[in-house]
Amino acid sequence: MDLTWFTEFRWRGQDAWPLVRHEIEGRSQEAVEASSLGQAFAEAGSQWAEACRADNPFSWELFQTFGAFPAVLDRHVTEFFPAMLRENAYYGKTLGVDAFSLEAVTAHGDEIFARMLARARGDEPIPEGLFRRQEGEHEQLLDILRALGDDRPFLFSMNLPNKGQVSNLPADAILESPTLVTAGTIRPLTLGPVPTGPAAILKRVIAVQELTVEAALTQDRELLVQALVADGAVRSPSEANRLLAEMARETSGRPWLSRTKSWMFDVPQSAAA
Known about the structure:
Blueprint: E1 5-6, E2 10-11, E3 14-15, H1 17-28, H2 48-53, H3 57-66, E4 69-70, H4 73-77, E5 89-90, E6 93-94, H5 102-121, H6 141-150, E7 154-161, E8 174-182, E9 185-188, H7 196-218, H8 221-231, H9 237-250, H10 258-265, H11 269-272
Antiparallel strand pairs: 1-4, 2-3, 5-6, 7-8, 8-9
Helix pairs in contact: 7-8
């Protein structure tokens, strides 16, 4: 799960949220420029700074509602609120089509893979700055090993089971949070509780993930239907069953799904009605 929230924001020792609210109150009077929405995002090749400067109206609406800001911005945040974005409607656009286009993401991924392949084959030189890059997500294994082995304290953002980092989220749920690595130890920082509103959303997401995993491990189709309904992406159990039936048709003949078909895709007669 990657639905990170900024719950506190301080500047020079003072609460800075009032400054943010004052700024967005002025902006809220302005009409959202629909033509530019969903065009600048890192997964399609935009620089992270450019993506951050882009309008993210859904994230700001959540901030005004919950008093906390979802850090990963609209491209990712919208995935967690399907019930609020029916038919993928997004401020006059359609998510995945003309806003945060899936085709653009796929094309950018293909370009990255082609460059990697060319460098691996020696057809293209490896850029000198490749191993010095810091922006965005990158491999931190060596940095973590250095901190562990050299006793040089360093703070990383790490995915670890919840052992008290966030007191009002389920124990052992995998949380991404600040973690101190030093002297052969990995110590996630205790952050205390998150506000009740964001906590309610995170608990729902965690519960859906648990249902999905349990459904897969036990091959229980009813649990899978429960997960789809609890997620909010479908309106009813019958719609969930129709979705699974459609998935079965679209994946017919795919050998890697042969083990799942018997329990995941066979729609009971009562449910198919």
